[in-house]
Amino acid sequence: METIFIAGGGTGGHIFPSLCIAQEMKKENLQVVFLGTKRGMEEKLVKEAGFSLLFIRARGWDRKWGLSFLSMLGDNLVGFFQTGFYFLRYRPQALLGMGSYLSLLSALWARILGVPIYLHEQNIYPGLSNRVVSRWAKKIFVSAPETISYWKDKEMRIEITGNPLREEVVNWKGKREEARQKLGLEKDRETILVMGGSRGSEIINVNFLGTRDWLGKKGLQVIHITGEEGFQRTKEMAEKFPFPYLVYKFLPQPGVAYAAADLAIARAGANTVFELFWFELPAILIPYGEATDDHQLYNAQWLEKQGLARVIKEKDLTSSLLTEEMEKILISPPCVFSNLKGEYMQEAASRIAQTIIEELRGRKRIGRNRLSITP
Q1: Bridge-partner residues for 372, per DSSP?
Q2: Three-state DSSP class for 138?
Q3: E-assigned strands of 204-323?
Q4: Smallest Cα–Cα separation from 373: which of 346, 349, 344, 352?
Q5: CA triplet 261, 48, 270: central angle to 5 degrees?
Q6: pLDDT single digits (tens) 249-283
């Protein structure tokens, strides 16, 4: 049985798309093995999905000189040799890198051993690891056409697939009444979804709670995904509101929340942005200010260009500004005006998996017919 390594972890932004692709590969009798760390979300999510996970001692690149930089180098040196051991032991037929330092460590060994390298870039602006590894990659899968402009010398190896979306998310599109009923919300109230990414956002939580007077006057209802840190305080405040206010630490299957909402307030990770695009859900995006290479800002600006979002930089965020932007959207919601429609992402995982499998098996058509989707 052919073995594929998938490298990329830490946050849901890397893990959820990679699990979608892994499920498609599994259908074609491939053994998928993930490379990850014990600090990221992969330890829980990958194991729950039933895939093998090999741990590597590694962490993100610290670009500032000091003790932490030396410590990072030590960890990644250990991780480099661990990765080499795994490559020699499992002899993978291909590597799929999903970005992050794990992709870079794995790609170095793939390059040394002659293992074909494939990349998927979830973000609009490609991350440093993928920019480095792209010179060795056989194929680069990207989420949106705009990403090609950052790889002008590699257009022939780039395929626009979209960002793989989870089936349990995709299937909720167009089911507003069913979603509100499932969540116990009122059918006819306007609904706001608030979320701060897979780990939550304190600045979003605090500033949204600061709009409580306006929320009360408008008679809205709220779905608030707080993360671990802000859960208890938000829960206590929510109980005082005279309207439905649901609070969750984490919602592993957010499709029901997207379907129920009229407006989202969120970070701008790749998963979030492309899920919002799939649902054509108007949004106020607050990009994470410390994201590497400002990739969340690029994602947010992309959704804004599609006609679906307003962007507030983290440094500018206040409760009053948030109230003002919510008021504008609820009075006159934006809509998709670009030629790109979310449906092109529906088969992204299958398309990526099939491309890799065809190349591994001599471009023979196997299983389902090859998809042809042009956004």
Answers
A1: none
A2: coil
A3: 221-225, 245-248, 263-266, 283-285, 309-311
A4: 344
A5: 45
A6: 988 889 999 999 999 999 999 999 999 999 999 99
Only one residue has tokens 């006159």, namely 332
Q: How far apart are CA 355 and CA 314, in angstroms?
A: 39
- Residues 93/365/352/146 CA torsion (nearest 10 deg): 130
Q: Which residues pair with 310 in a beta bridge?
A: 284
Per-residue pLDDT, averaged over 129-147, amounts to 95
Taking each helix axis from N to C end, the angle separating 12-27 and 270-279, rounded to the nearest 10 degrees, works out to 70
Locus of tokens 């599609």? 306
User: Which domains does the chain show, CATH number per domain?
Assistant: 3-165+346-360 (3.40.50.2000), 168-331 (3.40.50.2000)
Name the nearest CA neighbour of 97 among 330, 352, 286, 335: 352
Q: Look up residue 61 and give its DSSP letter.
A: P
What are the residues whose beta carbons fall under 8 Å from the beta carbon of 202, sequence distance 6 or more? 196, 227, 229, 230
Alpha carbon distance 40, 282 (integer Å): 30
Alpha-carbon distance of 16 to 349, in angstroms, equals 11
Tell me: the pLDDT tens digits for 81-114?
A: 999 999 999 999 999 999 888 889 999 999 999 9
Question: Distance between CA 309 and CA 282 in Å, rounded?
Answer: 6
Q: Distance between alpha carbon 367 and the CA centroid of its chain, in Å?
A: 28
Residue 63 predicted with pLDDT over 70 = no
Residue 55 pairs in a beta bridge with 36
Asked if 129 and 144 touch (Cβ cutoff 8 Å), the reply is no
Rounded Cα distance, 369 and 375, in Å: 19
